[in-house]
Amino acid sequence: MNAEKRIRRVVVAGGGTAGWMTAAALSKLLGKNLDICLVESESIGTVGVGEATIPTLQLFHQLLGIDEREVMAYTNATFKLGIAFENWKDVDHSYIHSFGTAGKDCWACNFSHFWVKGLRNGISHDIGDYCLEHFASRQGRFQVAPRQERNHAYHLDATLYAKYLRELAEKYGAMRIEGKIEDVQLDHHNGHIKALKLDSGKLLEGDLFIDCSGFRGLLIDKALHTGYEDWGHWLPCDRAVAVQTGKAAKPMPYTRSIARESGWQWRIPLQSRSGNGLVFCSHYMDDNDARKQLLGNIEGEPINEPRVIPFRTGTRRQHWNKNCIAVGLSSGFIEPLESTSIHLIQRSIIRLLTVFPSNGIFQVDINEFNRMVRDETENVRDFVILHYKLTDRQDSEFWRYCRGMDIPDSLAHRMEMFEKSGRVYKYGEELFGETSWLQVMLGQGLMPRTYHPIVDMMSDEELSRFLASIRNYVRQKVDSWPDHMEFINRYCKAN
Ligand code: FAD
């Protein structure tokens, strides 16, 4: 396919986090030569969740010239240094997947090989004791690191974040239209989208359409029938119930993920309130029981009605099809265990900006875009499956299913390599690198059988001094940091 036509009119369908992130980035970075129009419907609203992020969001903010202090104050944000996984390996066991790196790597292997030998010698402590971000999470302390070393993310109010981005997008010239999309009109010549018909009767014509309509996938699926690959057999949770409570007594700089009988519960502390939700599998638990379980496990009183959100884990067969690119929930969904959706939105936007088809839409660009999105999404998928598969829990049908389920070959390969050699690799542009795989594999109880021979070049005494020096450094450094909320009150107190 070769559609050589200058692309000038960009229509963004939907104004949730995905829609406004897209409109803000396009208008700020390429807006001079584009007409950008976003249509959204207040009566339909947004999914209204999506409050935990990962550190890559800082890159997006840098690109858009967004000031961290300003956006944090606007969105009632707190800092996030990682995720605490409670009851995942087993009931009453917990570990943290932090955004930092444990210890110091050497040219031949990473720090975990030294740590594993130390464990055998009885001198290693929790792996998190050797990582600043991990230790700071547990202590509830925070300090902004020098720019190059920043490994923090945010907990933020998703509705306010979309509002903030809307202001930015409109400032850079994006136009917003309130209306309900009733029909998607196709060009019968090449199957491209020609226009969106709104409930007012207005026709919104465009050259390129960005589908940010959420789970509905109005353009990419309802109109273009792109199809969906279901990953429910690997990630069986398919619903969530969400509710907000008041401000936490002591908002910690990490997200809590607490495994429950048929799923898991999140707790996300904002400056103004807390977000809570239970992600569960409808095959093992119904909505009523899920609601009861969630309300029985929150701190304080709910401040809104609990809301059930059904979802289907998987991915679009193509993320870019003809003149339509799906961004956000319309492109697929991997449940929120590792807070990766906003990151995947950001990646799709940056890819679109780098290959922007101003001189026409070429199949070769479409194929490359789809390949990159696919690779990255599969990496995230495998990483999330790992948490479910590597469990010792056998106390419910749900966990027995997860323990026994088949997994993708790509994940089986990583697990086997780690168990046999202690090695983990990051391939290409994958999001999760060695340090993330390590923390979760160890945290879920997969221990390497051996370590790299270079470790034995150190005497036991040297190893002991090496481990102790890192641990002491981490303690001293974190002890000098302020309390998380004390820091926020000085740095980015909500308006
Ligand atoms: P939506 O928010 O659903 O927005 C869709 C937009 O399309 C709305 O503006 C709507 O009005 C518009 N629209 C739809 N139909 C029409 C129509 N006919 N006419 C006009 N407009 C229309 N992500 C994270 O990164 N971190 C998290 O912690 C996290 N937690 C999550 C928890 C749950 C339970 C779920 C389900 C998701 C979570 N996510 C999380 C994902 C995150 O919420 C989404 O990626 C993000 O909100 C983007 O959503 P969206 O903009 O694609 O869709």
UniProtKB/TrEMBL annotation:
Known EC number: 1.14.19.-
Keywords per UniProt: Oxidoreductase
Record-level Gene Ontology MF annotations: oxidoreductase activity
Protein name per the record: Tryptophan halogenase family protein
